[in-house]
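Why show two proteins at once? Because comparison is the fastest way to build intuition. When a single record is shown, students tend to memorize it. When two are placed side by side, the eye starts asking what differs. So, the first record is below.
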Amino acid sequence: MRRNLLFWIPWVWAAAAPAGEPAAASSLDRAHRALYEKVRPSIVGIRARGTLGDVAGSGVLLDDQGLILTSSAVVGRGAERIQVYLSGPRQVPARLVGVRPEDECALIRIDPCGLPPIARGDSGAVVVGQRVYAIGNAENALIHDDQAAMSVGIVSGLYGLRDGRMGSTYTGRVMETTAAVNPGIEGGALVDAEGRLVGLLILNYSPLRWLGTAIPLDTLAPVIEELRREEQASEAAEKPVEAGQIAFLGADFAPDLPAEGGLTIRAVVPGGPAEAAGLAPGDRVLEIAGTVVRTQAELLAAVRRHAPGALVWMKVDVGGAVREIKVTLGGIKP
């Protein structure tokens, strides 16, 4: 009787499975495969020439204009010959946008490739026990076989790391996962059950736990935006300046003068130098290139001491915090 039961149960499974589906496949198996198919086009392999030779790792496509997030352990300062391996397979060159080693964050850019960018999740809502997936170029699986390596696990801890290991420079709050994190996957994606990016995979770990970790996306978001603003400012500086132009900031200021000093931005010119530097209405400009500005005449004079295309540092009150912001001045006909 027991033997008949053993043979009969698999027959029932096979009869119930959809056409083309393995007999023992479950709804969870199908969910895993659906997630892989959704996320895979947004994951890339990367190879770059660094100071110590060639390095390979992973990256995540952030937008439809070819912006890619990766680890500074993969693409560091001064990296050359950056090659990106896309689903297809396709191999394309990339240029460095910016690097923040202290945050283990690097951005590179390729020409628009037609592949979908990854959806972004809320890493602040991630909890211990939540199912997550690690996906990337572990052991060069993507570069050699056009197949991203993916594993499933849970978030097993939320804590801080104090020291760097395995070439990882990041210290700070991480999400620990039981999903496999192997060499080559650094710079890859930790995604939630909906395929949304919640963390950047790194090789750092706690020696008390020996499990993989990822930097929360919410931690990296302001770093990503800062690097993008610097890219925009750099592009503005490279634009040719017509003869006879004078420098301009591209911001309009409120006529009322704050008691605390400085000038309050009322509006910024779309695509202008101020907007490219991240300035916004409500920000209060205190200094330009070391010159304190108290009136619009003083601000105008401070700007026009410089040539169009000049790079200047401004001291700005942003929401009560004074920041040093780098601005590339534009050019305009007088």
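Second record. Ask yourself what differs from the first in the token line.
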Amino acid sequence: DTRKGEQGSIAPQVNDETLLGWPDYQRGKVALIFSTLFAAPVRTKLGEWDQQCYASDEEAHMRYSMQLDAYDRLVDEHPEMYQKIETRSDLQSILTQWQRIDTEEHPVGLVTLMEGAEGVREPAELENWYQRGVRIIGPAWAGTRFCGGTREPGPLTKEGFALLERMAEFHLTLDLSHMDEQAALQALDTYPGAIIASHANALALLKESGSNRHLTDRVIQGLLERGGVIGIVPANGFLRPNWKEAGGRSSVTLDYFVAQMDYVCQMSGDALHIGIGSDFDGGFGLQSVPMEIDSIADVRKIIPILVQKGYTEADVAAIMGRNWLVHLQNTLPEVL
């Protein structure tokens, strides 16, 4: 449905064909997603079509606010399809609705995640973002005034430490995705709250990439010690960096995706720190994912691969969603 709606538009030309759609959420049993707020600094703008960019803190604030407004409209106009998750009670409501067997369709829960936190003009604003439903914040995408990020390395700044201090007051989850290693290690040492990497892969299996976008073993070990969850990304560039030269999409299978999961599980000695971090809203689509995937529904095809590798039914359930649910149950407030 979404692909049909995007035919003739710029979207599939710049982001590939979409992997998301309401029927696919249902077929894939996608009960919960991290609904991202994201805008890029204007220095990274990819073309005139790339409108979600900002040139100042004020413009970043405006764009993030407008995106949050859009999620609010989506929920208000289609409550039978999408519901915001701000509390443990909201989460339990979604899970209860997915247990119903008298209907084939169930609502998708939206947990709001702010990626690249420059929409926060000053730490004092976090109370407003929290009241509006933001529950996870990643300080970086590219480098920000808070810390080094993808392709722009660097430590936490004075403003970064101030942001983390204020985040802790509201028990917000810190997302290390996109943070440079130096900044991530500082955050692991100093942030007292919950820490995750919502969408990031292990650098050890991607050494030829040379990118600071991926997680070093030091950062992974820090996340494991802090009880964090890492969402593995099934994007070909995050699974096999030379995939285009190696034969294109046909050269990447779901085995590469599972290998990333298995690497972290071997480090931790269990399957309690891994989840799906699809990033399917992240500027790529059908043409840039493993050949077995046609939509988000096909991520479930990793289940028999995990079983073949010796993962138990409980392990598979943890990887396919339970780990994220446990994290949310432990970090969301009971009520507002």
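One difference worth noting in the second protein: The chain has a mean pLDDT of 96.
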